[in-house]
Amino acid sequence: MSNLDTKIQDIWKEDKLSRKNDAKFLITFLRNRLSERQKSGQKKSYVLNIDAGWGRGKSFFMKRLTEHLIAEDYLVVSVNAWKDDHAEDPLLAVMSAADSELTKHLPDDQFAKQQLQRMKRDTARVLTAISKGAFRHWLHKAIGDGADAVEEFLNLEVEENENSMIDASGKSGANEIIKVLNSKTDSLFSQFRKSQQAIENFKGQMEKTIQLISSGNKKTPLFILIDELDRCRPIYAIQLLERVKHIFEIDDVVFIVATDTDQLQHSINAIYGNGFDSQRYLKRFFDRTYLFEPPEIDKYVDLLCETLSESDEVLRIPLENDEGLATFLADCFTGLDLSLRDVEQCMDILRSVVTVWPYGHLPIQMSVLVPIVVTFQQLGLRNSLREIYEDFLTLVQKSKRKMDFRSYSMHHQHGQAPERVNIANIFKYFVSAGAKNLPELTSEQLGSAWADWVRRQYSEEYHTLYGGGSIVGNEPSSVVKQYPEFVRSAGRLMSNIDGQE
Q1: Alpha helices, H only, 169-316
Q2: pTM above 0.85?
Q3: Is 120 part of any domain?
Q4: Are 501 and 390 in contact, with CB atoms under 8 Å apart?
């Protein structure tokens, strides 16, 4: 294995959703597509959209893709659009990042320094031409307090409102205003032509700078990766896409823009109205859109489990082997035929419950909490644990899959086959035993090995919270009875967070 292969393997070693193959495919595709464009006489540039919803490994992919490209000696610029959302114009953030990257890799000679200065000069001219509200700027500078009146006048019918304009203009007389308008209209046209020329000059200088760097030890194209665009202000996101499409159509420049496109479309509709075709509007900015293959549920759950803040010791599962929390959850979700979107919502509720868990290191019984969460997400919750169990049993019976889990109980001797049990039965044991108070549960035997395992969980709770002592006049019940209310409260957060915090 070469040093490069080893380096790339290390970059993707935490790739739980198998995105490395996507990266390799896209690098090859983009490199070859640029060559095809050059042969056909087209501009040797490209804008690719990576469309993936929350939790699909989008940001992980963009970060690792950046490292992968750098390892292969490409010029790479990384832009976090959400981080730079405070900027007045997104063009500034992109140009600043590109300038930093290109400056680092220019040859250390006089010609290269002169080329850099030429590129910086034309970059400044583009920023000045594009980022300023030119009309309002010169208007206020020319006639001061009369500017607002002129702006209002330009939005009205001239024939009907000329007198009111004159009255509103204050110290600026009609003749002065009209004279300014006539002369400055020509000035605006001239400024527009200059701004267009500045953009063309900038494109040329950036192309020359990239070519100069590529003659050394860096490969082209220049990759500019933009992440978190869907989290930005809608106007900022739209401006960024417009700047990319119209200003950076430059040979050997490739943009890779990661979005949750559904979320971005909602943001755009918030500006232009629900009847606006935001899907078609966004397509005009991208040459192609790449969709990740939906992940397998076990890999997806394994990734989402990283967002849970507690260890497996607190998140108690009914397994005494090495399969672990992610396997337990994946078995539950697969066994109930949940979609990826259902899994995402259930995991988010679980995460919120863990966040507010008030009982310290007392284990959270996942064989109770998970059925309650799934029932809430699919059907809503009725009042009692008994009713919730009945609804969950309905979901289990509707599923065509099995929900069995292997475990070696204390009653098994070495070499014996593992006992199998359905999670619905474990949930039933908890519900049945939970109808009693904790002191009663610490001494009685509940029958099967699995029922006895449930009794031991209640006994552990009794000793953890109350020291196992008797409580005169107020026999405590299990905190398991509070699980439904935790889930209801956590579920009410769903509409506001949309997976991002």
Answers
A1: 174-214, 234-247, 261-272, 278-283, 297-304
A2: no
A3: no
A4: no
Q: What's the number of CA atoms in the CB half-sphere (13 Å) around residue 225?
A: 23
In a domain, 114, yes or no: no
| Residue 230 near residue 237, CB atoms below 8 Å | yes
pLDDT of residue 311: 59
As a whole number of angstroms, the distance between CA 94 and CA 233 comes to: 16
* Domain count across the chain: 3
Same domain, 205 and 223: no
> Is the residue at 374 inside a domain?
yes
CA dist 368 → 57, 290, 304 (Å): 29, 39, 20
Same domain, 396 and 316: yes
Geometric angle at alpha carbon 271, from 270 and 277, rounded to 5°: 80
User: In the 3-class helix/strand/coil scheme, how is 342-375 assigned residue by residue?
Assistant: HHHHHHHHHHHHHHHCCCCCCCEEHHHHHHHHHH
For 347-403, what is each residue's pLDDT tens digit?
A: 999 999 999 999 988 999 999 999 999 999 999 999 899 999 999 999 988 886 666
Give the range with max mean pLDDT: 183-192, 211-220, 221-230, 241-250: 221-230
Q: What is the model's pLDDT at position 6?
A: 93
Q: Which domain holds residue 176?
A: 128-215
In a domain, 116, yes or no: no
Round to whole Å and give the CA distance between 108 and 413. Answer: 74
Same domain for 333 and 422, yes or no, is yes
Backbone angles phi, psi at 283, to 5 degrees: -60, -25
